[in-house]
Amino acid sequence: MLITLQEVSKHYSGVPVLEKISLKIQMPKIICILGPSGAGKTTLLNILSQSESADSGRVTVHPELKLSYVFQEDCLLPWSTVGENISFVKEASPTSASEIEAFLEEVGLAAYKNHYPHQLSGGMRQRCSLARAFYHGGNMLLMDEPFHSLDYHLRFDLVQKLIALWERKKCAIVFVTHDIDEALLLGDEIMILSRHPGRIVKIIEIDTPQRSRSLKELSLLKIRAEILEQLLTAQ
Ligand SMILES: Nc1ncnc2c1ncn2[C@@H]1O[C@H](COP(=O)(O)OP(=O)(O)OP(=O)(O)O)[C@@H](O)[C@H]1O
């Protein structure tokens, strides 16, 4: 277990945001968090990254926990090339160059190693962020709506790239999204939060391996309908 939350609650200025959240994060599990705006999804990620503390409840962190992040914005250094944007996240080793090449290959950016972020499209920049997060090598990857600004086709492409990278590293991923399809394709568990305050209203487990999932599959369509119903009542 990398991190365990037991009945964690959080408020801001007396207003409850998260209430009694219990959650276990372990490798190699992908947990997707869905919920209305203001449900406390980012606050929950902040508690997991320990950049915010809980007001009550218990947060137990395994000493070997090592975090990587991918945010909504790509957060690339504009003055550095794609290769440099990836290499700076950890100390160089004799295998760094070949590792970076392999990750760039995996996300389809091998030919863009010496390009600068402004020479890339939004989708390419997010692919670079993905490669960087996996090169960094954390065992828990926190992702806050990372594909939010991209069109459906690009999001789908990045979800497939993320699955391919995760299959190599098998880290734990906590993925916040508003997109039900992303959650259906990625999650081993889909956690639905309500708001005012943010409570877990449902956790749905999906057994089908990510590689074999299709959004047209009847079982996923049924889960989709269930999630939609839960989300509409969680407002
Ligand atoms: N540092 C803070 N100080 C005061 N209130 C905060 C702070 N951070 C978040 N909040 C409040 O906590 C609530 C939950 O915010 P949070 O960003 O966690 O929600 P969210 O589910 O991620 O929303 P969205 O889907 O819109 O990104 C909101 O009402 C927000 O205004």
What is the distance, rounded to the nearest whole angstrom, between the alpha carbons of the first and last residues? 31 Å
Total helical segments: 7
Approximately how much helix is present in the residues?
A: 25-40%
CATH architecture classification name of the largest domain: 3-Layer(aba) Sandwich
Give helix and strand order, one letter per element, not per position.
EEEHEEHHHEHEHEEH
CATH topology grouping of the largest domain: Rossmann fold
Overall 3D shape: globular
Could you tell me the number of beta strands?
9
How large, in whole angstroms, is the Cα Rg?
A: 18 Å
| Secondary-structure-derived class | alpha/beta
Which ligands does the model contain, each kind named once?
A: adenosine-5'-triphosphate
Query: What percentage of the residues does DSSP assign to strands (E)?
Result: 15-25%
- Low-pLDDT stretches are none
pLDDT averaged residue by residue: 93
Strand order of the largest sheet: 5-6-7-3-8-9
CATH class of the largest domain: Alpha Beta
Counting structural domains, the number is: 2
CATH superfamily grouping of the largest domain: P-loop containing nucleotide triphosphate hydrolases
Query: Mind describing the biggest β-sheet?
Result: 6 strands, mixed
Domain ABC transporter: 3-220
Keywords: ATP-binding, Nucleotide-binding, Transport
InterPro entries: AAA+_ATPase (IPR003593), ABC_transporter-like_ATP-bd (IPR003439), ABC_transporter_ATP-bind (IPR050166), P-loop_NTPase (IPR027417)
Pfam families: ABC_tran
